[in-house]
Amino acid sequence: MQTRTSGLASGSESRVGAACASMYATIAAQGRVRYLVNNAAITRDRLLMLMGDRDGVLDASLRGTYLCSQIALRGMIAVDGGLV
Fold it and tell me: Could you tell me the residue ranges of all domains in the chain?
């Protein structure tokens, strides 16, 4: 059983943090994000009911997508344009 800290599984907290840091670095280098394609997934087991690391799957597929979209959308709204 994984321990949870601040709403994230302890092993995936750094992965989500790295994704956010990557978004901020892109914005710092390029000025803004014009297009964001969310394409994150983890498939360790072929059957959903046998998937043991569901926290990691949800963090990558849902939380990472949500946080990256939120960061990109702030910039898109500020300049009245962009696509997710």
Answer: 10-78
pLDDT in tens, the chain (84 residues): 333 334 444 455 677 788 888 889 988 998 888 998 887 766 666 676 776 777 777 777 788 888 889 999 988 898 888 888
Residue with tokens 């990109």: 72
Torsion of CA 21, 26, 31, 36, to 10 degrees: -100
This prediction's pTM: 0.67
